[in-house]
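Batch 3, record 17
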Amino acid sequence: MPDTTTAPPTPKQGRVAAWWGPAVGLSGLGFYAATTVPEGAAGRQIFFNVAQPWAVYVFLAALIGLMVYGFVHHARLWGLGRPTPGILSEIPHRFRNAMRLGLVQEKVRRDRYAGIMHWCIFSSIVVLTFVTAQVAVEGDTPIKFLHGTYYLIFSFYGDLFGLIGLVGVAMAINRRYFQDFHRIRWDEKIEDSLIIVGLGLVLISGFFVEAARILVTELTQHPDWAPWSFVAYVIAQGLTGFHMSEPTVLSIHVWSWWFHIASAFSWLALIVFTRLDHLFFAPINAFFLRTDSPGRLTKIEDIEQQEIFGVGYVQDFTWKQLFELDACVRCGRCTEVCPANIAGQPLSPMHLIQDLKMHLADVGPDLQTHRHQFGDAGREVAGMAMVGDVIKDETLWACRTCGACMQECPVMIEHVPTIVDMRRFLVMNEARIPATAQAALENLEVRGHPWRGTSLERTTWMDGLEEVPIFDGSQEYLYWVGCSGSLVERNLPVTKAVFRLLRESGASFGVLGQEETCNGDPARRLGNEYLYQILAQQLVETFKAKNVQRVITNCPHCFNTFKNEYPQFDGHFEVLHHTEFLDGALKKGTLKATFPIAADVTYHDSCYLGRYNDQYDAPRQIIEMVPGANLVEMQRNFSKGLCCGAGGGNMWQEEVGERRVNHVRAEEAVRTGASQVISNCPFCIQMFEDGVPAVHPEEEGRMRPFDVAELLEASVFGPK
Amino acid sequence: MHIVVCAKQIPDPETPPSAFRIDAASNKVVPAQGIAPVLSQFDGIAAEAALRIKEANAGSKVTVISLGADSAAAAIKQVLAMGADEGVLLNDPAFEDGDSYTTAKTLAAAIKKLGDVDAVFCGRQAADWDMGQVGLLIAEELGWPVSIIAKGVTSGGAGLQVQRVLEDGYENVETPLPAVVTVSNEFGEPRYPKLPQIMAAAKKTVTQWKTEDLGLSAGEVGKAGSRLKLETLSLPPKGGAVELMPGDTPAEQAAALVAKLRADKIL
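Prediction for the assembled complex:
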């Protein structure tokens, strides 16, 4: 393959964060030094030149008090939510998440610049907290260790990480104020400047304290120690040029000490009042992150016994959903990758989370008293409805459930389940739903498929094929065609292709034909959980009655539902997407791609095969095994792939906004110069069939959309 | 105000043509396998019209009546889920294979039995046979005024204000109560039922009345009472032909097409 293929961004799992190497190692060295190095070696006077060093503890006590207050205040608001089922299951997995996503910050690194900047600031704060703690131990406990070689190393890494912190601050200032970087300014607040500038001042003043001390002590008394504090040393050298008297330097020292202490504690107090609280909330939210598949939406248990369906008021969220609102840092990564937002449609996941957070702060306190007095009966306390006023209906409908927001969120907020919860309220409780989506749901109820007005039958695709085996429990696989694969004209050739390839591979399989009904995915994503549960239960029973063990699906939505969601209904099946099966058959040699297809092709990752089920390779490997086919990647690919626009029930909705998502995506595909755009999903193909001609009106040389199976069929069987 | 909505369950109009079959011996449509019957969409719209009047007039009530077999209870439940209060199913083997006349006669007998009815709303026609007779014949049986093909109905004035669809616009009429109104698709889409109402509807019992409950005799209803006799029933012949327009350029082809359409008196 030519190197046009962009390597997938593969986060290295479990890699030890760079910062703890030095920090832990150096601390160990400190304890070694404490026991071995004799008194009188290198060292310094703790709280040099400061008359009231105990003031530090007053500040510390105030900070702790403030943090406790802040935490209780927040916790009372989170406490308004419902219980979060399963939040304490799989504790080891959760700890791994907290380490991997919280401490190691895998997601932060998905933006390289931000990753470096954040690592600089983060590691600096962690190491300098260690440094400060060691000073406190040395100064105010009987344990003495800050002397000798360790003191010198301590001085060195203290300065090093102070400098690293300043590099981080400079990068932050550069990005925010000089590059005017778009997404972090979408919801900018004054606190953002306070945080950056404040941290810069803390670090700089720290260096000045150190420099002034060195100037009157080490520089003259122990010139061989001084360079270990290399940043302060340079500053002190510079200060010698001013020929200040010792009392002047001492006065500079004491003033910068007070400034340093006051600014450091004030900055730490920002944790209570600003988004700096992500310091704690982000790793905790990583701990709370769902441990099962992100492709699985929450099941409403005992749905017929509920008094309210879905989430219409803040107190209907789980406390975890309320908690994660506080973790949001307004970085805008979610909104930047949101297909609706990219197309100028009325959804920004970041603003949605922020609006919910504000709403919770608005109504939360009233709600606490209210609930105390009246229980849960009167839900609404403010004149403003959360769903409808705070979060507009059209915002909820614009979501594709593509999961890009959750994939990018560095603090592990789960936007999609929250959006679907509010859709559930709209559909089931309020029956407020766009007319075309309503038609699809009604069709699902009445006809068991979402394709209103189709003139096809579930067996039409079999016309012209030799006998198609009906699944009777004796075959190994059930080939699940799905509604699109049988009822939408464009998708029939894909179904036929998969069928021919399955047969050619010698697989033992059968289909359900007329007995297929929708698995319920569109109903669930559109918010009609009740209808979904009815459809899912029926189908699980059908599968069990027919002794289905293994399923090959045409469509990644069916695939995701069977694989990730049916276990909620006690349906446990081994599920393969057709690309997975075909890739395996090619590798085993039961299928041979022999006829060359000389074409540049680009590949579009469907959200439900890619992001939700982490299957990026099988389809690409099939393309690579087709002789002549040359894969040209789009810029947004793999886990950063852009939705075709149809997900989350948007296949059946009128789009509201500047552009259509499929036009945006088709443009990206056309830009590769490939002659075919290959996908794995009937919806994606339909969206490209509509989108490509819209962005490339000339019929001549126009790119054509195909399924991976269609490409492979042409290579296995030759031209038709 | 007490409004009765007449709702009919019909074979799904979206049955794929390939699955639509006729039994020549009995002159009947064979129900397509695996395709469930549905509520005639015009009747859903009539229910919507009735429910809006109910919501605008406190203390109003909507009763839905259907003539059909056991399965027709589903159509009644659907209207109950939309917000209707009570349902009555006219279910008797004797009612089978009737025509518009016997259907209207049976429905009218049920409306009379209910007693306190102020208005009857029907769909403009059933979406299976498209006869458009039953609403008018109910009015005839009851001796009430009738306004057909309404795109709007509100309560007010002497009784109801009705916007009737005409070929080139619409007219506003006012009708005293009791009255019969048939509602057209121009009225708008029926509502999507809320889940709490679906569940409440599932718990409601549907009253079932037979011939004798309505004070009718077996000879007056169903096939026995019908005045319309079905001779034969057949599918329209399938087929099509393609004629390609001559011409070297799209403009010439277009000109040829227009000439052809004029010659065939289509334009």
